Amino acid sequence: ALCWKLPICFLFYQVVSGRAGLEGHYVAAVYEHESILSPSPAALVERRSALELMGRNLDVYEQQVLAAARQGAQIIVFPEDGIHGFNFTRSSIYPYLDFVPHSHSGKWNPCREPYLFNDTEVVQRLSCMALKNKIFLVANLGTKQPCERTDPRCPADGRYQFNTNVAFAADGTLLATYRKHNLYFEYAFDTPPQPDYAFFDTPFAGKFGMFTCFDILFFEPAVNLIRQYNL
Ligand SMILES: *[C@@H]1O[C@H](CO)[C@@H](O)[C@H](O)[C@H]1NC(C)=O
Ligand SMILES: *[C@@H]1O[C@H](CO)[C@@H](O)[C@H](O)[C@H]1NC(C)=O
């Protein structure tokens, strides 16, 4: 039952470093968002209407980031599927997917550099929330990654679709992405070819590792995240 109630299934993340702030503590906010859901998730819609629906959830996120920052939170974490919802098919979720570069090829600040990639409206808004409120922010969204026919694992529709966490620094920079490895009957999404070991550093509490929900029951990526990366 852990993951069946998706609206309350948070991104599981842990402080896996022993370091803490000078005062030995930090303030984290976790917002349990009741998503505004598409009334017909199996229907094919335009990107524009997908963005409109996600924008209503992001409006709530924006208020909560502001409220958390005002109360001194240094990091805020949002739940799995909180922006797009669930019960999609592989094709019906497509308009809800942002493009997020996965390779760690340089730093990207989506709020400051929105023009670098197409279909990044959701990550831009999240990045701007972090930047405006000077707070680290972790959220979950659907992402797409085009692939070539020469890649034997490339799905027939020419793209990977991932259940992805994104972490932003307090200046809006994208620090880390994590693609869920152990999907829970999520037929709209693909399992990444290799497990992601995703973590990011903070000035107030050292390193945070990321994995999502059902992942907590499995060896990969959680155990190796700690063993191999010695967090
Ligand atoms: C999602 O699908 C499940 C299983 O088919 C169904 O029980 C549930 O009511 C659906 N939820 C929404 C919000 O459509
Ligand atoms: C974005 O899409 C437009 C229209 O398809 C294209 O002309 C443009 O080159 C793309 N920009 C980037 C950064 O990929």
UniProtKB/TrEMBL annotation:
Molecular-function GO terms, alphabetical: biotinidase activity
One protein family per Pfam: CN_hydrolase
Residue ranges that the Swiss-Prot or TrEMBL entry lists as coiled coil: none
Keywords tagged on the record: Signal
Reaction catalysis annotation: biocytin + H2O = biotin + L-lysine
Single biological process term from Gene Ontology: biotin metabolic process
Entries under Gene3D superfamilies matching the protein: Carbon-nitrogen hydrolase (3.60.110.10)
EC number: 3.5.1.12
InterPro entries from the UniProt entry: Biotinidase/VNN, C-N_Hydrolase, C-N_Hydrolase_sf
Top-level class of the enzyme under EC nomenclature: hydrolase
All copies of domain CN hydrolase, residue ranges: 40-231
Keyword Isomerase part of the UniProt annotation: no
Superkingdom of this protein's organism: Eukaryota
Signal peptide start-end: 1-18
KW Signal (keyword) present: yes
Family affiliation: Belongs to the carbon-nitrogen hydrolase superfamily. BTD/VNN family.
Name of the molecule in the record: Biotinidase
Organism encoding this protein: Mystacornis crossleyi
Taxonomy of the source species: Eukaryota, Metazoa, Chordata, Craniata, Vertebrata
